DNA sequence: AATAAGCGCAACCGCCTGGAC
DNA sequence: GGTCCAGGCGGTTGCGCTTAT
């Protein structure tokens, strides 16, 4: 945003229960709409972006609170190996989890966990002093070249689907992507250039 | 018991993208 | 095609709590 928040006359920092209640009540009545005009309409002295984050990361009824389970952590590691820091895509595969939550969990827990296992958390490769064998998360997927991407403009690519992750894995040349923009909200697609 | 250090999480910041005009 | 606006996103910050000394 070019001018994300007009800081004059707006509250900042932690939300009070009263502010939470106003935001919840407003969204229950009117739904998620124009975030920029929402604060005024809801009687909140916050910027729209602050309201959006508070709702998405904390107040939304389907947000799952509490510790990550082992299978969730395992899935995050697998997805991070494939997608990198695409937190919203990763969170999209974890029902009830938000991108912010996944990102925080990665930075505070999983990075250390991988490092202690001798795995570089940035590229999921074994470090030289690796004490343990290769993590499952860094295994590459087996490819079936008969699968064909559904994207019309990726005709030069071959792809496969990773059913356990619900991911499209696409192999293509950089030239086949010329003039394209990647849709950040679409089904996660891993692109391998060759 | 007091203080420092470390950690986790919520919130903020600024960039990117898509749509409307 | 260019500009502006609004929403989405990832990186970063800062506060409060917990643990160590």
Automatic annotation (TrEMBL):
It is found in: Nucleus. Keywords: DNA-binding, Nucleus, Repeat, Transcription, Transcription regulation. Pfam families: Myb_DNA-binding. Gene3D superfamilies: Homeodomain-like. GO terms for cellular component: nucleus. Its main location: nucleus. Residues 117-149 are annotated as: Disordered. SMART domains: SANT. Residues 7-59, 60-110 form the Myb-like domain. GO terms for molecular function: cis-regulatory region sequence-specific DNA binding. It comes from the Eukaryota. GO terms for biological process: regulation of DNA-templated transcription; response to other organism. Residues 7-59, 60-114 form the HTH myb-type domain. This is (wild Malaysian banana) hypothetical protein. It comes from Musa acuminata subsp. malaccensis. The lineage of its organism: Eukaryota, Viridiplantae, Streptophyta, Embryophyta, Tracheophyta.
């Amino acid at each position: 945003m070019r001018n994300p928040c007009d800081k004059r006359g707006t509250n900042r920092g932690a939300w009070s229960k009263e502010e939470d209640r106003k935001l919840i009540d407003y969204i229950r009545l009117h739904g998620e709409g124009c975030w920029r005009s929402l604060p005024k309409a809801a009687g909140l002295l916050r910027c729209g972006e602050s309201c959006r984050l508070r709702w998405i990361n904390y107040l939304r009824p389907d947000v799952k609170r509490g510790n990550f389970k082992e299978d969730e952590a395992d899935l995050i590691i697998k997805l991070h190996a494939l997608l990198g820091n695409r937190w919203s895509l990763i969170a999209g595969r974890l029902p009830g989890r938000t991108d912010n939550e996944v990102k925080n969990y990665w930075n505070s827990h999983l990075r250390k966990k991988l490092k202690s296992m001798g795995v570089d958390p940035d590229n999921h490769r074994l470090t030289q002093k690796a004490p343990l064998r290769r993590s499952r998360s860094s295994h590459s997927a087996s490819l079936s070249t008969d699968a064909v991407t559904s994207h019309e403009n990726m005709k030069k690519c071959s792809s496969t689907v990773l059913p356990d992750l619900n991911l499209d894995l696409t192999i293509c040349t950089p030239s086949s992507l010329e003039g394209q923009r990647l849709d950040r909200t679409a089904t996660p697609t891993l692109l391998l250039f060759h």
